[in-house]
Amino acid sequence: MPPKPLSHWLPILDWLPRSRGAQLRDDLLAGVITALLLVPQGMALALLAGLPPIVGLYAGILPPLVYALFGTSRTLAVGPVSVAALLVANALAGTAADPGSAEWLQGAITLAALSAGILLLMGLLRLGELANFLSHPVLSGFTSGAAVIIIVSQLPQLTGIALPRDAGTLTQLGHLFMELPRLDPGPLIYGVVALLLLLMARKAPLLKPLARLGIPPRATLLASRTAPLMVVLGATAIAAFTLPLLPVAVVGDIPAGLPVPSLQFLAGDHWLELLPAALVISIIGYVESVSVARVLAWRRRERVDPNRELIALGASNAGAALTGTMPVAGGFARSMVNFEAGARSQLAGIVTALLVALSALLFTPVFRYLPLAVLAAVIIAAVIPLIDVKALKAAWRFDHADGLALMVTFLGVVLVDIELGLAAGLLLSVGTFLWRTGHPHAAVVGRVPGTEHFRNEERHHVETWPHLLLLRMDESLYFANTAFLEQVVARRVAERPELQHVVLICSAVNRIDHSALETLEQLAENLALSNIVFHLAEVKGPVMDRLRGSGLLEAMGDGRVFLSSEEAVEYLGTHPRPNGNEQENQDSPSAENHP
Amino acid sequence: MPPKPLSHWLPILDWLPRSRGAQLRDDLLAGVITALLLVPQGMALALLAGLPPIVGLYAGILPPLVYALFGTSRTLAVGPVSVAALLVANALAGTAADPGSAEWLQGAITLAALSAGILLLMGLLRLGELANFLSHPVLSGFTSGAAVIIIVSQLPQLTGIALPRDAGTLTQLGHLFMELPRLDPGPLIYGVVALLLLLMARKAPLLKPLARLGIPPRATLLASRTAPLMVVLGATAIAAFTLPLLPVAVVGDIPAGLPVPSLQFLAGDHWLELLPAALVISIIGYVESVSVARVLAWRRRERVDPNRELIALGASNAGAALTGTMPVAGGFARSMVNFEAGARSQLAGIVTALLVALSALLFTPVFRYLPLAVLAAVIIAAVIPLIDVKALKAAWRFDHADGLALMVTFLGVVLVDIELGLAAGLLLSVGTFLWRTGHPHAAVVGRVPGTEHFRNEERHHVETWPHLLLLRMDESLYFANTAFLEQVVARRVAERPELQHVVLICSAVNRIDHSALETLEQLAENLALSNIVFHLAEVKGPVMDRLRGSGLLEAMGDGRVFLSSEEAVEYLGTHPRPNGNEQENQDSPSAENHP
């Protein structure tokens, strides 16, 4: 292989020099719009993760800049994301630290460093495809479940009612219900009004009048996407003046300034304890990032390289650890906004990062009177679209097993434990697949009269022959279905005393493993003990290559490998061995027996 | 379903009344031969499990009687088996008890009771097929590894050198090597001579002269199979007279008598701790039993019911727990002997059990001077055939992944831990299967000129068309290969700017899950964004039934489902859309492009 150019590893060297006027303008605008969304969301997500709000802004500075260097997606918006923030809070709840404390922050930074290591290692080992073992239903159930937990976690901010931290979701909801009389009107009013405004701003029909007024779609989008910032600023202004009238918890002083890169993350001492959580954060973050990057790449006939994405996301998380913030990923919603706002390259991401840095440097005093309830509303509005009931219906309708995997993951995540729920869904979906390939469709076939087509004898009127069993297995043969194959043949043999030949039709067999090979050898030998010859038909080329070197053809004795079922019938149907069984007078295929 | 007759659950009601003279004689002889083998083996296996020798005889009394009632195999010999004995010793080494102590025995009984519960539960839930997930290479590696450990475990008896109990196999061998100067001649002489005699007695060439002398084969077999008993009795006689001359550890007093059924097994208090080991003992024992039962059943066109075997083996283990002995299973070697000796029904097993009971009652004083080294030789001779190097070669030659799974299991069992080794092999074989189905064979096909056959364009000279991509996936589509499918299509689309149609040929697709469905929908929509129409061809009936209810056909827009690749080419090849791409002048398939 020729050495790859440097631009293979640093795609920025490819796209940056080719940037031109119109594209620069598009990227600039998209970067601004995304930043307006990211500033309030970043602070809110930091709170969700149990961290000071400014840490959420940090997560929007260096990590996207690093991604811009290494990433293969032009439009993925990397930064703080809701599921990672939830997983950070969940992982650290198991340690001795308290939310908001220095140890808690240290734990979040350790998680970012671990995620960086895991992703870089997976990238170097080219293990990107491991993520494929998370099936869509499991991912959907996980995301919906995480969204529900996030919403529940925001209820204390919204209601002023403290909930037990380590309790299950149901216990927390029960507690909330019992404490309802103590509802605090301040946060409730701010929170509910903000939530309603945010949800309304997203509804397309409400934006249509603007379009009719001649406002260009991009400007409409701008108005829609800046809603979180507008709501946040408006609520802050109101709270600043009315705080004595309507008391509500506010953000308070945020230390302004940029993060100073430091190796402080090396000081963490819960590495091993946090490793499983970091693994889940990395893989889920990676899957989310690559999924949205793929969708966006398709729209412009671009390509995303899964293994280089691992490197890019690993480097971004290293940037997060270096600047003292929580793990990052490519967020679904913010990337879509970035794309729809016209982003053409990672230049948009760079603009976003610079604007967020500017906010961290200059504008934090603005948020002094920002009610926490409003930030809770920002998070809730962001995750509500993640709850996907349609996916459950569609999966269940298509295949109950898929629907069940989704439901088990969702309920496991919500009611038991986030990581256990994910593991249960993963095991269930892999188990279902193995179970099904272990119980393949097997059909006894016969010939459609007057043709060379062979069909299932239970579904079609076909010719069959008492001394001949044509069995088609609709699956590759491997260890989990060898016993099934043996049982099917044994049952048929026991049913048919006149049987002389068994032909296994392998048209749907893409692969045979050594367990299956041994089973076929054993089967051929066992059938020979009963004076039955075992044949194969329609064996695919690569499978035949394998079988040629093995002992199967020898074990088959007089058995042959026929190119087609028709050939098998022509050869065997017209030449039944007269000495095979009691009924010796049948020497031609008798279609009459099976009208 | 009509209610099943009582004989379905108690097969003895079916076969016993139909027993006739010749069969009774055959069963009687087979029962005697098997008992002659079982008595010394049972005592030796008890010692292997760290139990008093008499307990091994107990395992050959009630359990086979219970199996005779419930078992569906006519000739399976149930009783103490080497792998279960090893697993018992291994499991109890983790507890505080010492081998030979009352607590140790209690632990073995607890394991039998747990195995009974597990097997009965699996039988009631009809989970017999779970055992299918142990592939042949993994089982082979496990059995070979267990045999090696058993042999190493017998070296102290053979050499008189005590080995550290909890150390790994390599450490033990190293220790043995260091202590070689302390070799004890007594056990070594008895052990080596006994081992050589036992191995020679098994060699067929040595038995031929007997046949030439006119001795019937069954008598020869009898002579061969009684070798262990002869060796044991001979060695005992010699030791009784020469013990002062050549000191050697002997069995000593064995309390004679039959086991008294008791519920003492309920007194065990390590239930939870021993559960994982009991699970492995049950499943391995079940797999071994059913494997040999199947092989024997085939030879006489009989059937074995895997789920009723679970019940029968569970009941046998309940019998073991009730009579205060270790877990039992159907042994491979002893069942083969039983079969070859002419057993026709479980009557042979009943005869064996009665003879073993007689031995326990009357003959234990005979074994007072039996050297332990000779029992060690009996065990070693019994397990040597289990070390299957040929299986490794055959598996590796057929498929390196199968060979690797066997090797990993073997080395894991021998060097690390019996149960961890088994788990590693299981994970590796399942992982390999998932990995392969996740990376299926995918071929771009074209038409063999002048025919309606379509073949891989990389292997054959075929007609292709620049505006048409015919892609065949040789695997069912499911979550682990959806990303692969998408990447293959994306790469081809990026390579071919003139592309207007993608046809996915599904002739080898036996199943589509919801993840794959969503990927196909997404693919169709993404392709549509690039003005490419997505089609399907050769979709199997059951798959098509599924797709009809889904949103895929809608997402495909103008895309069609063709019955055959030929139909796709006829329809699409002669009607390229003129407005699709830059090159508008190609309006017929151009075979000339690909000579």
Please, could you describe this protein's structure?
The structure is a homodimer of 595-residue chains. In chain A, 52% of the residues are buried. In chain A, 60% of the residues lie in helices and 5% in strands. In chain A, a hairpin with a 6-residue loop joins strand 3 (442-447) and strand 4 (454-456). The first copy, chain A, is mainly α. The model of chain A is unreliable at 580-595 (pLDDT under 50). Chain A has two domains: 21-251 and 282-362 and 374-431, no CATH class; 442-593, STAS domain (Transcription Regulator spoIIAA, 2-Layer Sandwich), CATH 3.30.750. Chain A has 26 helices and eight strands. At the A-B interface, helix 14, helix 19, helix 20, helix 21 and helix 22 of A face helix 14, helix 19, helix 20, helix 21 and helix 22 of B.
Short description:
Chain A is mainly α and 595 residues long.
